[in-house]
Records
---
Amino acid sequence: MQTPAPGFPSHCLWMDGGQLERNCQTVSAVLERGPHLVVSLVVSLVVSLVGLRGGFPLWITLVGLRGGFPWWVSLVGLLFGSPLWVSLVGLPGGFPLWVSLVGLLFGSPLWVSFVGFHRNCKYKFWRFMAENEAPGERNENIRVVVRGRPLSTGELEAGYESIVHFDSVQQTVALKDPHSGAVKSFTFDHVFGPDSTQPDIFNEVARPIIDNVLEGYNGTIFAYGQTGSGKTHTMEGGSGKAELRGIIPNSFAHIFGQIAKAEAHQKFLVRVSYFEIYMEQIRDLLSKKTDREKVLVTGLEVKEDKEKGVYVKGLTEQVVHSADDLDKIMALGKKNRVTGATKMNAHSSRSHAIFSVTIERSERISDGRLHICVGKLNLVDLAGSERQSKSEAVDDRLKEAAKINHGLSNLGNVIAALTDGKSTHVPYRNSKLTRILQDSLGGNSKTVMCANLGPANYNHEETMNTLRYATRAKWIKNAAKINEDPKDAVLKRLEEEIQALRRQLNGSGDTGRNSEEEEEDAEDAKRRIALQKERKERRDARARELSQMQAEIAAQRRELEQNERMGEQQRAKLRQDIADKEGKLDVAEKERQGLLEKLNRLEKTIIVGGENLLDKAEEQERLLEESAKELELRRKKEQELRKTLLSKKTERTKMEEKFATLQEIAAAKKLEESRLKAELNSLKTDLKGLRQDNATRREEAKGSKKDIEKNIQLYKMIIDRYLPREMQALIEANCSYNHDIGEWEVSCLAFTGAMMQPDYSGQNRPAAPGGGPRKPLSYEEALAQAEQHKLDRPPDPNWEGLFRSYADELGS
Ligand SMILES: Nc1ncnc2c1ncn2[C@@H]1O[C@H](COP(=O)(O)OP(=O)(O)OP(=O)(O)O)[C@@H](O)[C@H]1O
């Protein structure tokens, strides 16, 4: 069993030593940052101890479950309550064989408890590690941006319409179905409409990746899309005008622009390779053999290495010193690339092209060690998917198209396997393209996918496919980490070689430039000190030999000049001897020159931070810087706009919520209103009826009032004519209104009815019309008057008799 590293808890014993050492920093950080992990370990321990004491299979089952056993196994273990089961379960569950066997032998839950505990720790630990990124390693989704090109002249002439709407503020693409008119919307990390410029794309898509590559991360930018959708335009761009250059040449300018801004103690080595995958074959586009033999080196193999990752064996790598070097190399490779005309694109790329730039950066850190970071940038221009019906490809073009579509469908399968969450196998090995992009998709790389779209209505299906593909790719997670101090760093080897050359030259008389560095290098490693010592001894011996040779030549010359007695034969021998020695010195000098040249060459290979190596690309880098500043301003504006939009949206949502409540209130009010309206209508009808009723009643009342007035007139007339005034006053004075019965009553009987005495004298009678003497009316006269006034007949035909008797009574 391994001893844990200092400062590590004993539960980390299950890790093997190498792994433990490698994860040393990570584990401390995890323990520091993950108190809940520690809590979970303690809980596991407690559970295990309880299991240990009670020896209950139930506990073990529970621990087993937490440890990640299949549930059915736990259930069976529970049913039988037997440690035997649990031991057997341990085997497929991932226990070491010996633990299970010992557990089986002793039949003891003790073992199983411990195993459960360990397994649980391990499971939890790795899950925690997966969920929490370790220092220097970043788990992040690949970025997906979309770029739409404008409708081409041909498409405009043919009358095609754009069915894609790009919103660069909301980062959405809306695609309209030309048949149904239905619109489907997609959101991406960034959306570039047809008006977007090449520097915009570079600054948004490539600049951050290149900055990461300079820090030591791997980065990939790949363009995907239907044939003719603008992939090559995006990656390479047009030659000539600076503002038309694509991501690849702009990257060159930016890389050397950043190196020019770096500190002088940082050193860089930039190497490039360029190859294509054509008909499932890898072709080296920078192969020197191209010029000589006019054939490309093809059929290169893809290999995988722990340190290097996936790489192409035997690929030409060229060291570059400036942005212009890179430009020239790209132009050379581009010439070798396979293109062909199809109906969809006059210069269709018939292969997937990968331009790789490896940047090694070294600097001396505080402890004097040389720290090296290596970042690799892959710039990928994929061939476009195409349909034979549209591209009308035949013969070779058709065969190429089949291979292209096959490679792309494999890429689709890899994306699907990486994102569906169920796949246990990712089919990287099914094609060269997916194999090469293995690190870029789901591996150690920061990746951006640029999905290119053609906006015309006749491409609806392909555009929809690209958008779906791109949407899926958004879910791919990569774990990029800085590649530090790789064993095979070329920069380190070169630095060592340069130091050796300098020492060699110093030893042979060259004073060298940097003895301090030499000393630092000597401290670099013990191995090198020994090597240095050995070399120094050889160097000193050689130097002694050369100076001795020079001294001998000088002495021999002197002897030749001064010794006149020397014979001719002896002189010739001495001359020959001098010439031999001079020849040897010449060889030594040539050797020194050779070493100097080699040193110069090697020194040139390494670029020192702060050197301006942009040459012609300087203008390009300036353009990019300006455009980056503009972009920053625009970004701020867009951000503000997004904020405004967001607050408006929130306001709208609130309004809508309010509105929903208001709507409910309004619906209730409406109901109430219609109820009230109905009530009002019925009231109105009632009122109308009442009004009519009233009018009728008023009319009736008017009529009865008239009748009453007529009656009053009659009775007044009768009273005035036939009741003496004094009698009237007397009767009035004795009358009172009986409220109980609602009638008038005469309080004195003497004045009622028959007690009344007529006025025979006629003085008290009402004056006769025409002022004659007042006479009592005859019955006939009374009848006539009644008839004239339309009154009821006098009640008694003997009215006169009655009247007379009444009068008599009054008179007696
Ligand atoms: N954003 C753009 N603005 C203007 N023109 C563009 C744009 N994108 C593409 N084009 C033009 O469209 C045509 C096709 O573009 P390109 O060759 O880049 O397509 P591709 O996707 O690489 O096609 P293939 O897969 O067949 O190689 C070219 O003439 C190119 O100049």
---
Amino acid sequence: MTTSHRTDLTVRTIPDADLDQAVDLTALAFHLKLDGKGRAQQSEVLRGALRIGAYDDRTLAGMAAAHRLRIAVPGGQLPVAALDFVCVAATHRRRGALRELLAEFWRHCAAERLPLACLWASESAIYGRFGFGAATEAYRLEIDSGRPLRLRIAPDDRPLRLLDPADAPAVLGAFHEEQLSAGAGRFSRDAAWWRRHVLGLEDADDDEDDYGPLRVVVLGAAGEHPGGYALYRTRGADGHAPGAVDVQELAAASAPAAAALWTYLAGIDLTSTVHAFARPVDDPLLQFAADRDQVRVTRQEPCLWLRLVDVGAALTARSWAAPVDVVLDVRDAALPANDGRFRLTVGRPGTAASWTPTTDTADIALDVRELGACYLGGMPLRRLVQAGLVTERTPGAVRRLDAAWETERLPFTAEDY
Ligand SMILES: CC(=O)SCCNC(=O)CCNC(=O)[C@H](O)C(C)(C)COP(=O)(O)OP(=O)(O)OC[C@H]1O[C@@H](n2cnc3c(N)ncnc32)[C@H](O)[C@@H]1OP(=O)(O)O
């Protein structure tokens, strides 16, 4: 527990007894209309999370919560504290409450040996100052499906079947876990996470939009290992808008499998547009689409913001594509254990990296947020040098480090939990 003289708030763990207050605060800050079911659902999610509150006397004035998840990193998975519900009451904003909450949050991460923290930002301008870097990016895609989808490859011709969403964790869980090794940035999911955060099976009913219920389509016959799947919703045409398909998630084991799923989605009768709100920047669809006027990128945006809480643990746990030996001068204003000069040594690919303090001259100087942006392999460091954010002191050092942390696929994060 800490009491901040700057904010006059006491920062401490939120006990179960205060869950009602926590739900009230999230409703206030995120402008939510929660009925009884919505409150119960929110409370249940918070109950299982790491929760830190900023109290004004006994009133909860700010909070941050985190799900304890596992995230795919190059070559494996690591525990991650996935921040959520970060909010401060309008009466207490811009007095340093968030800063105090995060200071306490780092202590919890250290105590629980969580080397990484991540979040989806409500506003991109907030979290860089706390050491988070935009580690995965996504495209929004739009397909003109008023005409047949034209592709340059033949789709997988296995059957497609619709699945009851309640069966999705059992049918698709193992497939999803296999996909984690294909690209970093995705979360491992247990059945509860699938139900609550992916399929929304425990959500309170809301009529906020005119899309129908979530549908699950799977490639491959029952009993066969799936070749891929898509989660989507549809909307019929009305006087103002054409019928549309909204793709929440599409995962496929191969390009032909992806082609089969996109062809299915684009062919749904009484719809003429497919929207996909979060697709990997290296989505193969963009290559195998025969007509790029038909498949368009409408937006590119950051998805997951990543913070290396324990830089050494994070760097030595991931795999590397090439040997490298560089001294990094890392600035970390919030976590002194990360701050300073360290030698990163990577031997043959497949061998463990080492990260040791050194007094040797630095080859590269950078802020910890830049390490967060590059860690999963989505951002080459040279782009941050070009942007004036990273200093290369030894010519060639950045090129060598970029070759070492490059990954086969770009990282991607499917769910905005
Ligand atoms: C992971 C998630 O949950 S994302 C959701 C984030 N929450 C929301 O958007 C809900 C509505 N907003 C809020 O609850 C609050 O305004 C918060 C949580 C964003 C900020 O809380 P505050 O207590 O006001 O922040 P605090 O006073 O500690 O500010 C810390 C720093 O962040 C900056 N900051 C805070 N909010 C913003 C913002 N919206 N945009 C840019 N900078 C911001 C402050 O200027 C300050 O900068 P400095 O210390 O470098 O000078």
